[in-house]
Amino acid sequence: MITGEDGPDTAVELPGTADTEAFGEELGRTLHAGDLVVLSGPLGAGKTALVRGLARGLQVAGPITSPTFVIAREHAPLPGGPGVPLVHVDAYRLGGFAELDDLDLDTDLTEAVVVVEWGEGVAERLAEHHVLVQLERREDDVRVARVTRG
Ligand SMILES: Nc1ncnc2c1ncn2[C@@H]1O[C@H](COP(=O)(O)OP(=O)(O)OP(=O)(O)O)[C@@H](O)[C@H]1O
Ligand SMILES: [Mg+2]
Questions:
Q1: In the beta sheet, which residues pair with residue 72?
Q2: Which of 43, 50, 68, 107 is 20 to 30 Å apart from 141, CA to CA?
Q3: Which residues pair with 77 in a beta bridge?
Q4: Ligand 1 centroid to 14 CA: how many Å?
Q5: Which family does the UniProt entry place this protein in (predicted)?
């Protein structure tokens, strides 16, 4: 359902926060070390909610938050899971790729799953391939997710 192999028009309706989290969880279960997920969508679209689900699917320690002054957080794998850490980046305040590339992270990105909020157009260069999830906030407040693999 969330493969996106039909192109960017594979749209999934997410009526509530729990649906967005479940969508992220399902995606998270498919991810491996070195995978990059790029999230786009306006303020309050549900990007962080999706990451909360990703963390559940990937079985890493929480909590997933979006604090004002922290650009990247690293979440350690939980025992019993696939053993891959999650690096959660919020690129909202970053000026561009140079700043993103300069983040002094402890984790080797090829050994982690990296998810970047506000990453479209910038973060794709962090890895050879990526999964782009575009979240739209419809007028009726339902979120619509479109997944494209690039
Ligand atoms: N279908 C939905 N999916 C996700 N969030 C929803 C949905 N319906 C309502 N919400 C609410 O919208 C808000 C989404 O917040 P969230 O922090 O996940 O968005 P965001 O895209 O990360 O925002 P920001 O751009 O500030 O980082 C939450 O308060 C959440 O409960
Ligand atoms: Mg957010």
A1: 89
A2: 68
A3: 60
A4: 11
A5: Belongs to the TsaE family.
CB within 6 Å of ligand 1 — which residues?
A: 14-17, 19-20, 41, 43-49, 66, 117, 141, 143
Asked if residue 5 belongs to a domain, the reply is no
Q: How far is the CA of 83 from the centre of ligand 2 (A)?
A: 25
Residue pair 54/86 in contact (Cβ under 8 Å)? The answer is yes
- For residue 130, being part of any structural domain is answered with yes
User: CB atoms < 10 A from the CB of 55, how many?
Assistant: 24
Give the number of whichever ligand sits closest to the CA of residue 88: 2
Q: What is the mean pLDDT of residues 2-11?
A: 61
pTM strictly above 0.90: yes
| Rounded average pLDDT over 27-46 | 97
Local structure of residue 36 (DSSP, 8 states): E
pLDDT in tens, 38-69: 999 999 999 999 999 999 999 999 999 986 67
- Residue span of the structural domain in which 114 resides: 11-149
Q: Which amino acid, one-letter code, is at 129?
A: H
Atom of ligand 1 nearest to the CA of 39: 21
* CA quadruple 33, 109, 135, 59: dihedral, nearest 10: 50
